[in-house]
Structure formats: C-alpha cells, structure tokens
C-alpha cells in the first residue's frame, strides 16, 4: 500500500510518516519513487504514535530500534520505567501544589471575612 493508505490505516498523517522515515525510525521499501508499506510498517507507525501519546519523544525512540527495524524491548521497558517514575514525581508535585492552593484559599477566605471589601464599579 502507498503512503495515503498507510496514513489512513495507521492514524498518522502523511507528514508524520515522512518524518518518521527521515529520522530513521521507519524504513519503507520502495517501488520506483513510491513508498510501499507493509502491515509490519503500519504496526510500527502505530507503536510510534502510541509512544508519543505516552510522552516519549521521537528522539528517545531512535536508540530503541534494532537492526531488524523492530524495537529492542529491554530498552523499551527501561524507557517506560523511567517515564513512569517521572510521572510519579509530577503527580507528587501536583498533589503538593493542590494542597497549597487549598491552604491559600482558606487564608484568603478568613481574611475576607474580617476586612470589608469594596466592589469595583463596572465602567462598561
């Protein structure tokens, strides 16, 4: 199948597929000047898209591709473990921020109840 059909079947844009190929993430056979995609190519494109949706950069994927145009699954697991640790750290930071926002809301509400406030005129 050609690139347009590959884009439809994989869910990636033609531009994205060309980018994956230019970066060396994807090696597609050619007939003349036309790219001819196999079912294995479509699966690889879908995996690249899935990795991106997990927050993995295309540049991080390059070292994960082995010589047979497949993934080195040991390296993939290492990247995923690292990504999971990174996300856990972000969750902790967001939870702490969430608590601080709640504390500041309470402080402001206490201040508001003791200080008369003036309403601004609508100059509309």
TrEMBL record:
It comes from the Bacteria. InterPro entries: DNA-bd_dom_put_sf, MerR-type_HTH_dom, MerR_fam. Residues 1-67 form the HTH merR-type domain. Keywords: DNA-binding, Repressor, Transcription, Transcription regulation. SUPFAM superfamilies: Putative DNA-binding domain. This is MerR family transcriptional regulator. It comes from Photobacterium rosenbergii.
């Amino acid at each position: 199948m050609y690139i347009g059909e590959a884009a439809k079947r994989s869910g990636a844009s033609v531009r994205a597929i060309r980018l994956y190929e230019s970066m060396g993430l994807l090696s597609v056979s050619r007939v003349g000047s036309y790219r001819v995609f196999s079912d294995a190519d479509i699966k690889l494109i879908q995996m690249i898209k899935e990795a991106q949706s997990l927050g993995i950069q295309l540049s991080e994927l390059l070292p994960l591709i082995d010589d047979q145009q497949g993934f080195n699954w040991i390296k993939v697991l290492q990247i995923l473990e690292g990504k999971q640790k990174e996300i856990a750290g972000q969750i902790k930071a967001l939870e702490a921020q969430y608590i601080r926002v709640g504390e500041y809301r309470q402080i402001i509400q206490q201040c508001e109840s003791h200080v008369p406030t003036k309403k601004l005129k609508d100059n509309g």
